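Table S2 (continued). Query chain:
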Amino acid sequence: MKSKLLTFFGVAIAIAIAVIACHNLQLASKHSTSTAITIKLSGWGGSPVEQKLLRQVLQNFETEHPTIKVKYEVISDQYMDVIKTRLIGEAAPDVFYLDALEAPFLMSQNVLEPLEDYVTPEFDLADFEDTLLNSFKYQNKIYGLPKDYSTLALFYNKKAFAAAGLSNPPTTWDELRSYSKQLTGKLNRYGFGEIPELSRQVYKIKAFGGQIVDKNGYAAFASEASLKGLQLVIDQYRKDRSFAQKSDVGTNSGSEMFGQSKVAMVIEGNWAIPYLTETFPEVEFATAEVPTINEKKGTMVFTVAYVMNKQAQHKAEAWELISYLTGKTGMQKWTGTGFALPTRKSVAKNLGYDRDPLRSPLVAGVDYATPWQVGKYPAAIVNNFENQFVSALLGQQPLKQAMVQAEKSANQQIKAID
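Corresponding output:
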């Protein structure tokens, strides 16, 4: 009987210990959750695949950093207007996307946290492509770490080339114009698809020594050198009649023009590869570096960085998030599916994009690409250029007259707000 009582008490004590332990674990769990620091991250909306991948990477971060929670917010409309308004009202997120085009203005406004003091030798800052990292430097300080990028490359329809007896992609712009004439009216309605936006014309302007803005940030695209590059587009459209812009064929993008076989060639970025593969799997295409102009290689590079709000309350934790997302492991997870190109050289090498048949021309271009930046007031530059350039493209006024007017209007707007 005594032994049975001892056994009973032993079991009861064991159960009590287990209950207390379980209760303490629950309290510890609640305490851990309640003391976790929340970092707010904002970005614009991407494709469902992109959003799913980012959420997976953020979940991995939280697993490795149990004391930090990430509240991810998608700003689906008027992204920069929303961010600027929140920065003024001191309600901006701790970490957010910043496009290179918008970076010069925000970097000059003392609203971003400089990041160089957070960087350790292990983070390996030298691993980033210089062209991309420099897009987020201002007065010798680093304000953003680029998360991914794309250059531009020539996409061409292999069946259309074969039908026209063309075996290799054009390597010069003169060849592209010749090919464009040969391809027009064959398997495709037009040989080439051109995007008249300024972001696709800068490398043509620079090929002849022209520039978009001067050292003081004012528009300077009406020079004779700049006009030489732009005249190529005007002549090909109005004289050759061998290329179309989006509105001519009822599409919303260069990728769609190409996918619908309205054009046989187009100059697009890395984003076109998954889009074409998924949406137009019947289109057989290849890529090549952008043809040289005036014997000079040229392309554009578009990049986005993670930046930290200078008013962030938990800067150490915000840095942990940025350093994870732009670190070697986080970046490899983010860019491993191929819809974005890694800004770290080591990650690009590990993923083999420099050897990828479709992506290698895009990777090669980063060494000589022009970053998509046009000073502190991009809206004034871009809007005035595009309004007048399209007018010249349609033959409504001479090119020089259009660009002089665009430059004058842009600079009047800049002087009014600077």
